Amino acid sequence: MRAPLSTGMALTSTTPRSSLALRRIALFEGLSDQRLDLLAQQCLWHSVEAGKPLLLRAEQQGDVFMLVSGRVRVTTYAANGRQVTFRDSEAGEHFGDIAAIDGGPRSADVVTLLPSVLASLDRAAFLGLLREEPLVAERVMQRLASLVRQLSERVIELSTLGVQNRLHAELLRLARAAGVAHNQARLEPAPRHAALASQISTNREQVTRELNVLVRSGVLQKDGKALLVADVARLEAMVSQVRDDAG
Known about the structure:
The model is unreliable at about 1-15 (pLDDT under 50). Helix content is about 45%, strand content about 20%. A hairpin with a 2-residue loop joins strand 10 (about 220-225) and strand 11 (about 225-230). It is α+β, with helices and mostly antiparallel strands.
């Protein structure tokens, strides 16, 4: 059996080594019971506290991780120490496949946001799975294509939009991810100002100022521990107009 990774993860005997847990992973949807049982035995299982590093940028390590429960953040740090966040991953998602595919170093850091249970599959087993299960390989390709599109959009925003407009675009993404109903979306818990700042490459103070402007204009409303996007259509129009002008 492989040893637990050196980034602080703990392999615990109480963590279930079960194919039932792997059924929660979207990448494996539709696989046979036999295949899932084999994968469960090939995986290392990890129970990790919140705030712990899972992967380190530039690390030479090619395991692929399946997030059974919890939440993680894919991020990195600029030379000046500023955190740049790429995305958060929820239970049912996987990550780490870029290094597994090309054999290169990790392209970002990954840290737990909540207590998490993960299964990790080594590079050889993952590549074997892609060769033997075309549906899984297709899903990996679709995900990588989606990441390229997302990163391209982020680069365009960072290159052409001001802080105010980047914040509007990020809030619109969060609203759509949370679900829009009757022109409103509820973000609960409300995103932390520092987290928003790392998403759009600015500082917390600027985010706080711009959020207050949106609250005063009625686009946002504070509701206890939640943040309500009270007028999604207006936010969409603001983002669309600026993108049209930039184009």
